[in-house]
Amino acid sequence: MFELDGHVFSWLQGWRLVSPHFSSLMDSAIFPALALNEKDIAEWEEDTDEYMRKNLPSELDDISGWAEDLFTARKSAINLLGVLALSKGPPVVSAASKRKKGDKSKGKGGSCIGELLVIPFLSKFPVPSHGEDASSKAVQNYFGVLMAYGGLQDFLSERKDLAVTLIRNRILPLYYLDPCSPYLISTANWIIGQLTLCLPEAMCTDIYNSLMKALSMEDAEDVTCYPVRASASGAIAELIENGYAPPDWVALLQVVVKRISAEDENESALLFQLLGTIVDAGQEKVAAHIPGTVSNIANTITNLLPSVPDPWPQVVEQGFAALVAMVQAWDSPAPDENKEHEKSAWQLGQTAIAQTFSTVLQKAWLLPVEQMEPTLDSALPPPSCVNDASVLLEFILRSITSMEEITHMKVFELVVIWADIIAYWDSWEEEEDQGVFNAIKEAVSFHQRFDSSGFFLKMLPSQSANGSQSSVISRVSSFVTRAIAAYPSATWRACSCIHTLLHAPDFSLGAEDTRMTLAVTFGEATFSYFKGVSDSPAGIWKPLLLAISSCYICYPDAIQQVLCKDDGNGYTAWASALAQVSSSSFTPGLSSESEIKLAILTLATVIERLLALSMGGTKVLQDCYISLMESCIHLKDVQEDG
Hints:
66% of the residues lie in helices and 1% in strands. The protein is mostly helical. Helix 24 runs antiparallel to helix 25.
């Protein structure tokens, strides 16, 4: 009934229909569905998450309705009020407009039913007095008032002055009741979170203080206050994300960290999200406290990690996301090299964070492998949070300053299992991957600085189902090869990693065959993808053709065979496309000095090869020569500007 009535009022703007009967409709049908009842109280205690899904949704849909699977009489009543509130009331005609027969403004500018009927009806219910609990009719009715306000989000967002007045006079007083009703406070938090864009700056501090009071509300003897804290967490996050700066970032950080524990996974998952928001926004204001914060929440995460290689629970995933936010906040205010005292303190913090991350990753990756039953096909840990875990590993790798730290943090062991995991990772659509690519480049840098024995190039047994042997570099390269055709951004990142993997590792340590194998594999993958997009010039040509160039510079004969394997014209097709990309007219053109140098070296080699093949008068050679000249001029300009 509520849904049908809502559509009728919306379509017909039925002021005449609804006005005479509004109060009786509210009293008899709509408001009873909104008021607090015994079922709400029972569900609050017995199935708190379901109560929150039904009554405190994290995000309101439009007024046509909430999630279909949560349809209830209360939802229907709220939806109807939302439609009614936006429906037009009677037209307002001024005396002046009556005298102007041709006045086009006549009949326009009327108020909405929300202003004329809905808000006045709700205003007749007073804020409860001190000492009233859930058994009080005043509390039960005021719960209905708050639910109604929540359904008026679209209406109130268009009338910010009214929204501010309601929050000041009808919502904030609830936080000062003794005792505070958790049923009312949780709904008040939720409404504030929905209306943060309406709040004036001068009012935000009072609201923030009220939300902090709610965030710290402890459970009563017979009533859980988890919905209160959860809704307060969401509202505080909304405030911060909309530009509010808490007066004391550290105090907020401490309150959140103190509440995070392994005892309540659902609440901790929400607090991890809030923690990430705080750190993202606070940056340098919380940076000094990050090492201690990392240590505290890492203990919780390690206690929540499953002891068997099952997919990680959501709370662990949220915990890893919070750790990544702290990495980004810690990196942003790194002190100047000239400030020795600050640099020394920062380095101590960096080492402490790296050690904590190592402990977490050992528990996440190494311990499950050690405890794995030998009868299982694969001893790999689950591919959960691969991107976030890669960010932590990358932080460890760039924090290392000595061989002692490498041993203490089990860096080589972590890198081996990480490379094994990403070699078989294939979740491009479900998870970010920038952290994995960054970790690959940092791993190569670490190899150059500390891997004097060539450990990264040694054949090692895999924990995967096939149990074959492969090197760390080969496993990483497997990930890069599959990334080439995953999606455009991954193609760019993968091609950038190809340059790093072919030219940075020390392949002189008896592993030249490995390098050739990688070059051929990369060449096949990049050229195969290029052929699929070669019909017309496109931006994706640039990374693909430069990646093939990196392979070609290493092994010209082998890569030429790759290019001509399925098509005898493959080599000249690639050379012609490279000439196009290297020309001054191509967009996006070569920009960095390293790109231009690679193009120059490759074009010069290609020209020599074409001349040796007696192709001196061909268009492809002419194009290569022109692009070579243009690239040389471009390189000189870039070097002078740099």
